[in-house]
Amino acid sequence: xxxxxxxxxxxxxxxxxxxxxxxxxxxxxxxxxxxxxxxxxxxxxxxxxxxxxxxxxxxxxxxxxxxxxxxxxxxxxxxxxxxxxxxxxxxxxxxxxxxxxxxxxxxxxxxxxxxxxxxxxxxxxxxxxxxxxxxxxxxxxxxxxxxxxxxxxxxxxxxxxxxxxxxxxxxxxxxxxxxxxxxxxxxxxxxxxxxxxxxxxxxxxxxxxxxxxxxxxxxxxxxxxxxxxxxxxxxxxxxxxxxxxxxxxxxxxxxxxxxxxx
Length: 262
What we know:
Layout: H1 3-7, H2 11-41, H3 56-83, H4 86-118, H5 126-147, H6 151-165, H7 168-178, H8 200-245
């Protein structure tokens, strides 16, 4: 078996992978539906913040998954620079795209929550500003990959950006401890009881929402990786067809000796 055939999944493998992705998607969306139901009907209304506080159950899991996405980019970028294996490059690229989606969700839900509490949509405090910088870094990462015409070179440059850009993740996380900010110190995924006043219904809702959004993240990532593999396969086949159609200039025949007969 040739190396190209060995690296290309067959129809049975693709069908099995597709079934797994569909099952994961069904589980993810069912979990999200359960989480939304618990947000509306199980978690109590906060005495101070009112109903708007329930956006917490979307905001914090989204932040956690943004961190996870960019951690995957960081690890896979290091692996790609060491091995130059396409699978690490594809996983890093896919995780960056999903991470930008969840960071965008953080930047959308945060101001919606802040407006009735702070009286403004946006404040240039440490947590909000560092989160915006994080989003811009990885949007730039994606633009770098999209604008380059040399996939190998763009992969290496993007890997460097993915490694350096991850430095901002702990800055975002600890900004409320290092500087004075309007953003509350807690609760977090690691410590959901920190300054939260949560009791059993709120804790149950939080962990169900966290699990649901994590399943959604895994589904989105698996779809993106699968699409990347299909795109690679289509490109490889297109190049193969182009090579068959245009094999290159044919060798010139040697000149026939003078006086020779056909």
